[in-house]
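DM from R.C. (forwarded with permission)

"hey, sorry to bug you on a friday — could you get me a structure for this? deadline for the figure draft is monday and I only need the backbone to look sensible"
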Amino acid sequence: MPAYVIVGMQWGDEGKGKIVDYLTKYAEIVVRHQGGNNAGHTVVVDGKQSILHLIPSGILHEGIVCIVGNGTVLDPAVVIDELDSLNAAGYATAGRLFFSDCAHVIMPYHKALDKAQERFRGKNRIGTTGRGIGPCYADKADRMGIRMGDLVNEAVFKEKLGAILEYKNGVLEKVLGETPLQFDEVFDEYRGYAGQLRPYVADAVKLVHDAVAADRRIIFEGAQGAMLDLDHGTYPYVTSSTTVSGGVCAGAGVGPTNVDGVIGIVKAYTTRVGEGPFPTELTDQVGEQLRREGNEFGATTGRPRRCGWFDAIQLRRAARLNGMTAIVMTKPDVLSIVDPIRICTAYNINGSVTHDFPTSLEALENAVPVYEDMPGWNEDISACRTWDDLPEKAQRYFERIEELLGVPVCTISVGPGREQTIERIDPFSISACGTMRGMTPEPA
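My reply, with the result:
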C-alpha cells in the first residue's frame, strides 16, 4: 500500500486539517513529521468542530493509528490539553496515539526567549506566535535540547534541566533583561507532564517502518506551508522546520523510496499570517471580503490572515520544491462572492517581467503581480458534490490552474464539513512515476 505526503503549498492555512481528516478514510496510519503548536488544524465532523495543534487530524477516525514524529517539537501542556479534549469528546487515544521519544520538548525558557527576541527585533520582527518553537529548534541544532525520551526518564531529565537552565537563565537575565526561571518550579511542572505522557512515548521510527513492512497505507501530515520552509521559504519570515515534502524523510525517519506521491493542498486564493512579502496581497475591500467570508483568522492565535489573489508563480515554485503529484483545492466556495477572479501569472520586478519566483527577499518585495482575469461564477457551490454539479465557470477556473501548474486538481473542498468534498480523481492513484505525471506547466 502506498505512502503519501500531504503538504500545504502556500504560506500555511490551506485547510490541511480538513483534508487529512477526509483522506484518512483511505489510510491506516497518519504521521505528523514537523512543526509544533504554532499551527492549528480545524476539522468539522457532523457539524462539530475540533481544533488540533499537534495531534494528527486522523485521530478523529476510529481505529486509525496516529504518530507524532521526531521532527516535531512538543509542548507537554498543549499535548495534554488536546488529549483531554479528544477523550472528553469520545475520541479514544490510548493504544493508537504515539509520540516519538526523539521529538524535542518545548520548555518555559523557549517561550520566554521567543517573546523577548521578538521584542528585541522591533520593526524587524518576524511575527512569531511566541510559543517557543524557534528557540526549541535552535536548541536542537545547538545540541542543547531535551527530548521526550529524556522527559519521561526522571533522572536524565533532572540532570539535563539543571545544566541547561543555568545557561538559559544567564541569557534571559543578563542579555535580555528578563526574570530568571526557578529550577524547582520547572522540574516539578514537567515531572507532572511526564507522568501523564509516558504511556504515549515510543520509538516512532520503528512504528513507521513496521507499518511500511506490513504494507499499510500511510499519510504523512505536515504543518504550515511550503513557502514557510526554513531553507526554501521567504527567509527570514519563515518557520523553524522543513515544511516541504522532503522533510518527511528526516522528520519521520523514512527514506525517499518509501514515498509514493505528494498531495498538495492549495487554497483557491492566497493567505499569509505574520510578516513578510506577499505580492498578491489585497488591502482593499475585496481582501476584507475574502477574510470575512473565508473566516481567515488563525486557529491557534486568532490573528487575522492577510488575503490576496491566487499566485501561480509562487505555486509553480512550490510544486517543483515538493514534487507535487496531485492538487486538493480548498475554499473555492469563498470566491463565489467575487467577480472577476484574478490569477497572478507573472511578476514585474523593476520593469522586468518574470515567470520565476525570486529567491531574493528584496526582489520579492518589489514584485508587482501581472494578472489574468477570469469570470466569477456568482453562485453558492457549497452543496456541490460532483464535478458536474459545479458551474462551468468554476470548472474552467480549476482547469486553468491545472494548465498553469501542470498538476491535476483531484479533489475539491467546497466547505468546512467532511462531506463538503468533491472527488474528481483519486489522488492516491497518481504516483511520482504515474502516467499523469507527464503533465507540464504552461510555458512562460
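R.C.: lifesaver. The domain at 3-74+206-436 is CATH 3.90.170.10 (Adenylosuccinate Synthetase; Chain A, domain 3).
me: no worries. The longest helix spans residues 154-175.
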